[in-house]
Design brief:
Layout (H helix, E strand, L loop, with lengths): L6 E5 L3 H12 L4 E4 H8 L14 H10 L8 E5 L16 H11 L3 E5 L6 H5 L7 E4 L4 H24 L7 H9 L6 H4 L5 H4 L1 H7 L4 H20 L6 E2 L1 H8 L3 H6 L1 H5 L17 E2 H8 L7 H8 L23 E3 L4 E3 L4 E2 L12 E4 H11 L2
Parallel strand pairs: 1-2, 1-3, 3-4, 4-5, 8-11
Antiparallel strand pairs: 6-7, 8-9, 10-11
Helix pairs in contact: 1-6, 3-4, 6-7, 6-11, 10-11
Length: about 375
């Protein structure tokens, strides 16, 4: 199979959904492939790839991916619910965890599209250690396809960065800093995001006897999961739009719609892997802009530019109190600004570097008894 073009393997048990998603991916100049259709094409030539064989489903799926260079796919796009595969004896019984284990060994990133209801609140809020990335399936097929392609390109950006800096045993933080084009002031903060989990990866994989190419791909996937699920998801070193609005005390919706205000902070804009999925800004670069003002506030900084009427800037409101209560933090549950008084933070299940990430007090009050178990 020709893999010069980026290829996304769609693992979906609903043929209609798969057809529409593959079609949408192909419309973005990326090669989308239906897993079920491809598996049943290969099956007649490889009778060992059957659900009735003595080969476990995990090994069955692994052998399938190893055929005809399928292990070189750029992304495995997986429906969170694959129950219909159990009704077809010719197909292996798959689930997202089995797929992520096999793909992890082969250096293939996995993106799971899931309803929010598919995960309970505890899992949803603390899944930064997942071996796959999760996106909301309640989007149009075109939007899902675009998001999948952007995620695939993010992993490819990391792979390319490792190829240029090919020493797999090199310090992981240095490699990531180069790939992320990270400001110097951010290095010490990045290390707080449980980077040890990624740093230990080369030793683990080398013991498994993997080839240098697979080793490099597997490391890039681990880096990508850590970056997407931890650093980008939980504001601290990087701020998404809602977190930036809270930090600057500007209504996030107003900020999102104002190209002029966002343009004033272009210097801080993140342009590393996954930047097309959602905009982020380097907190240290924001601080370097604000420190030039005596009071170090966003309104003072914007006022000094002379092009923005700061009297018309709406304040960020605390999602818990509904008041401008001196916000500055980001509620990871509601994904909105929150103040320190009406939120809880410092939990051990959050990445250590997520210093601006908290959870609204009302939500925490409902969840805290479970965390105490």
């Amino acid at each position: 199979m020709n893999t010069t073009q980026s290829m996304i393997l769609v693992v979906e048990d609903n043929p209609d959904n798969s057809t529409q998603l593959v079609s949408a991916i192909n419309g973005l100049s990326t090669n989308g492939v239906d897993f079920q259709e491809l598996f049943l094409q290969i099956l007649p030539k490889n009778k060992q790839l059957t659900q009735d064989s003595q080969i476990p489903d995990e090994e069955n799926f692994r052998q399938f991916l190893m055929l005809d260079n399928l292990d070189q796919v750029s992304l495995c796009f997986v429906d969170s619910e694959l129950g219909r595969f159990r009704q077809n004896d010719d197909l292996p019984i798959l689930n997202k965890d089995l797929i992520s284990r096999v793909c992890g060994d082969l250096g293939i990133p996995v993106c799971v599209y899931s309803d929010a209801a598919d995960e309970d609140d505890l899992e949803r809020l603390s899944n930064w250690t997942h071996r796959y990335v999760v996106i909301d399936r309640n989007l149009s097929f075109d939007a899902l396809a675009q998001l999948g392609v952007n995620i695939s390109e993010g992993f490819e950006q990391i792979r390319n960065g490792l190829r240029e800096d090919s020493a797999v045993e090199k310090d992981t933080l240095s490699q990531l800093g180069k790939i992320l084009n990270m400001p110097e002031d951010a290095y010490s903060h990045l290390g707080l995001y449980s980077i040890g989990q990624v740093s230990a990866l080369p030793i683990k994989l080398q013991k498994a006897g993997l080839t240098p190419d697979v080793l490099s791909r597997a490391k890039s996937v681990s880096m990508g999961y850590w970056l997407y699920n931890s650093v980008l998801r939980y504001p601290g070193i990087l701020l998404n739009t809602a977190a930036l609005g809270s930090y600057l005390d500007i209504d996030p919706d107003y900020l999102d719609e104002s190209t002029e205000i966002k343009g004033a902070f272009d210097k801080a804009l993140y342009k590393g892997p996954f930047y097309e999925v959602e905009p982020h800004w380097w907190k240290c670069e924001i601080d370097s802009l604000l420190v030039e003002c005596p009071n170090e506030t966003a309104r003072e900084y914007l006022d000094n530019l002379g092009t923005i009427d700061i009297d018309k800037l709406p304040q960020a409101m605390c999602t818990e109190s509904g008041e401008p209560d001196g916000v500055g933090y980001y509620c990871i549950a509601k994904k909105q600004p929150v103040c320190e008084v009406h939120s809880a933070g410092g939990h051990s299940w959050l990445p250590g570097g997520a210093v601006l990430s908290r959870i609204s007090q009302s939500i925490w009050d409902g969840l805290s008894p479970f965390y105490a178990l």
